[in-house]
Amino acid sequence: MPEPTPVLVTEGLAKAFGRHAVLDGISLRVDPGEIVVISGGNGAGKSTLLRCLAGLLPFEGRARVGGLEVDGRPDVRRLVGYVPQAVQLPEHATVGEVLAFFARLRGVRPEVPDLPEGFLPAAERPIGICSGGQRQRVALAVALLGDPRLLLLDEPVANLDEGGRDAFWETLRGRARAGAAALVATPTPADLIGVADRAVVLADGRVVHDGAMDGPHVVALGRRRGTPEPRASDLGEDEEEAEA
Known about the structure:
four-stranded antiparallel β-sheet; alpha/beta; disordered C terminus; six-stranded mixed β-sheet; Rossmann fold; 27% helix
């Protein structure tokens, strides 16, 4: 049986700000239906990686989504749904107007039928009076518009209550069953046990773990928020070779 065509492939992806290297040779493959956690301590490069893949930052190396080079072109961006860590929406617009605006940009309908009823605030509610959790829900809905092949989600449920988190994860699993793929950045990967298929842990700008959700790096990061970033130099020799 032939291998599926990957949704995402990166080869030697690197990003530096001035002389500070944030990402150093990131090579990944994500297949249809996969939900992959991107984790690591503060400053590990999680958000930078997602911004590069969303076409918002230039980078060295290669990245392809659906076989197309990531270079900021509209035809590539239409394949991607992105939620940044800091959600910014126009204060003066209503929830319905925000969805309609982004739907027009993508040439799709402004509905997200697989989100459960009540997940979003009322369409006529102004963004300016929405709570942080409500704004997060709107941003998640925007990312899901038009059934993108790749979802890039930076701490997507940070401001949601338990019901909102469960509803979104169930929606994400449904998208994965339909063939979409997702990268979910979080400092606490244990939160996605039962949701994600595998975990990628970054340290010193490199991938130090790409595999099971119960790997030692994943377990260490899942203990509590604020866990210090693991350093590549802290790895045992055998483990480093196994995970290279």
